[in-house]
């Protein structure tokens, strides 16, 4: 293998701290495994004295495989590991000496798991069942606090969970784990760090055990992870960090790119190597993506280049509707079926309409991140409840789920009164017997009874529209969207995709069956090894494809509404992360890149992503 001068400079670095800034497609994994081999064969370092930490289990396995394939040395297997697996080893060593047994609670199939514990805590506090959205919000903020090494009450105001509620649940969750010797993934990091800080002998053991520490994907490393590795590397500081601050896209779970930007402050004697040649993408893509990411302020200045020739120009494409995007993609991938293609998107929601369209057109695909949350979302359950109540008007249980989400001003007292009654015909007829009912309520209940009779006769697509407009469900989600951690636009998009699916069905059972079949299709797609991949940009990081289509490039979706609002309030950090995410998507492409948006959604005009405007300005200027 022929290596460039910059790659060789990095590989030849032996002692002291080093930061290798490796742009997309610059061969970072090649550098890591070649440096390991050089330390072993040229400098006589024993393989077991080199610790290489990477971001994911898949990356660690890939490094092991590539090292073995490249150097064919069965007798010298260096240690490639994820940070969590390594920390688990530290804790197991400690627990063995102390004769303590810890139990990991990440598997939701086990009887004791973190989800059940948190649900039980919430129920004990508030005498109600925690929603999936609130559970997800708690775990997200909890992980962020642990990884950033900040107290739970220092998180500040959040939209998805009350600060006091979060702090109380955080403490009770920590107490439950401590009393029962339970650990989650975040505990592996914090406990390992605490053990080394509080036990000088243990720290000295690991410092003597490893002469060299390598960190891959340094931009995705959290503060606690970086502090742990820096602690172990001291005082010799033989720490070798391979990273690209321009690809730091996991801020929401504690990624700490500031640690890279502070490298020279932490290690004044450290060396910084710039690997700026992209071996992956065409010159068109490299030039445009490099100019695009330069608009971020908090970054190392890099001048990315490539020896690859110009190819097809990057295309920004405007379509009338969401489905028009899909039609174009299908035509393009049919022209060159031998090429590896990827359709990338900011949110998993975008996959729903796309896979529905591909399946209708008998086109197989592979899906990288199978997320089934949409099918269990409260909004989907609400729509099911409306249609079920239209089919069976006597169900108080179903009515209780949606009574406050539609017109009619029905009170909780009325529902409690209904729950002890025997319903003869339907809930609306029964409520007419409510003691002291006013003429106003009588009129509203009769209107609702007629509405649900109409719903019963409608096709699912028409029923869904009727629920939204005539039963005022859109008004409910508009007023409550932020409380649930969504924008109104996001929820409308979910309903729009449901309407597209509903339009293929004739009644409620068929609609529900179609939704279930799409859920199953999503699960099965992870086993389809074919040339078309559907993926979020986050999950596509580290991958490459001949042709890339980035879809649904609409403002407040990509970039997100939260990042735009933060920017308007004077905080550019979220928007800069969104820009890095867009950059990651662009640089997955080798030969062609199509950036796509639609003009209308749900009969309303949309606004193209601000990133497309930025690219347009760059193209005009350059």
Measured between the Cα atoms of the first and last residue, the distance is 35 Å
**What share of the residues lie within helices?**
40-55%
Overall shape: it is globular
Note the beta-strand portion. 5-15%
Task: Indicate the low-confidence ranges by residue numbers.
Answer: none
Radius of gyration: 28 Å
Mean of pLDDT: 92
Main beta-sheet strand count, sense and barrel state = 6 strands, parallel
Strand segment tally: 16
The SS-based structural class is alpha/beta
> Strands of the largest sheet, in order across it?
3-2-6-7-1-8
Helical segment tally? Answer: 28
Highlighted features:
single chain; about 625 residues; alpha/beta; six-stranded parallel sheet; 28 helices; 16 strands; globular
Description:
This protein is of the alpha/beta class and 622 residues long. Helix content is 52%, strand content 11%. It contains 28 helices and 16 strands. A six-stranded parallel β-sheet has the order 3-2-6-7-1-8, with helices on both faces. It has a six-stranded parallel β-sheet with strand order 9-14-13-10-12-11. The longest helix has 19 residues, at 439-457. The protein is globular and about 90 Å long. The model has no long low-confidence stretch (mean pLDDT 92).
Secondary-structure map with pairings?
Layout: H1 5-12, E1 18-22, H2 28-41, E2 50-54, H3 57-71, E3 79-82, H4 83-98, E4 103-104, H5 114-126, H6 132-148, H7 163-180, E5 182-183, H8 185-198, H9 200-209, E6 212-215, H10 223-233, E7 239-243, H11 258-261, H12 263-266, E8 271-275, H13 283-293, E9 315-319, H14 322-335, E10 341-345, H15 349-360, E11 366-367, H16 378-391, H17 396-402, H18 412-419, H19 427-431, H20 439-457, H21 460-469, H22 473-480, H23 488-502, H24 508-525, E12 532-536, H25 537-540, E13 545-550, H26 561-568, H27 573-586, E14 589-598, E15 600-601, E16 604-605, H28 610-621
Parallel strand pairs: 1-7, 1-8, 2-3, 2-6, 4-5, 6-7, 9-14, 10-12, 10-13, 11-12, 13-14
Antiparallel strand pairs: 15-16
Helix pairs in contact: 1-2, 2-3, 4-8, 5-7, 8-9, 8-10, 13-27, 14-15, 15-23, 16-17, 16-20, 21-23, 26-27
